[in-house]
Amino acid sequence: MRILKHLFENNQQWAEAITAKEPQFFKHLSEQQTPQYLWIGCADSRVPANQIVGLLPGELFVHRNVANQVIHTDLNCLSVIQFAVDVLHVRHIIVCGHYQCGGVKAALQNERHGLVDNWLRHLQDVHKKYQTAFRKLDDPHRQCDLLCELNVIEQVMNVCHTTIVQDAWQRGQSLTVHGWIYGLHNGLLQDLNVCITHLSELNPMLEKAVSHVISSI
Ligand code: CO
């Protein structure tokens, strides 16, 4: 390799360390994957899915994009959800946002960044939906954190509204959708009290989660 040699060296050390502990690890993993969880998170380099929850390769199916969004027409994200639910039979879908998300900040600042602005537009819709709550906050830092939390709740709702998840519940498949948020400043996860196991729980639980978030302003 001409460049990035250190990454190949890191890789070799990593693979050797795992094999030293468990010689058949990669052989077994290459034959099948049976993850229990689908993680939908932000692309931010500071939010590495597996490390945060201490899971090994093979244990977490992952989709990441700017500001952990689940857009109804995003075939990429929908395909990941469909494969995870219908083929891998994951039992949990975790939407995990993080405080001080750059995508969320950019959406609040209304500055032009290029193509990504179209993607961030969805966050601005969430901001608009809850604008009354935002009027109570002057501090841009706190506004950003509020939108990070509300965005997670909205994306959980979007996951639950997909035909994939609704069909899974309809046929009695065990599937729970969670909304979590991660603190860049302390490395800790926080549950936003969204944990939906059935369509009937969706609206009451989301309403409760939204009012909890807004009342803690
Ligand atoms: Co982010």
Structural overview:
There is one protein chain. The protein has helices spanning 5-21, 25-31, 49-52, 75-87, 102-109, 116-129, 131-134, 140-161, 163-170, 199-215, and strands at residues 37-42, 60-65, 92-98, 176-182, 189-196. With 217 residues, the chain is an alpha/beta fold. It has a five-stranded mixed sheet. Helix 5 crosses helix 6 and helix 8 runs antiparallel to helix 10 (199-215). It is globular and about 55 Å long. The model has no long low-confidence stretch (mean pLDDT 96). It binds cobalt (II) ion.
Write the layout of secondary structure elements.
Blueprint: H1 5-21, H2 25-31, E1 37-42, H3 49-52, E2 60-65, H4 75-87, E3 92-98, H5 102-109, H6 116-129, H7 131-134, H8 140-161, H9 163-170, E4 176-182, E5 189-196, H10 199-215
Parallel strand pairs: 1-2, 1-3, 3-4
Antiparallel strand pairs: 4-5
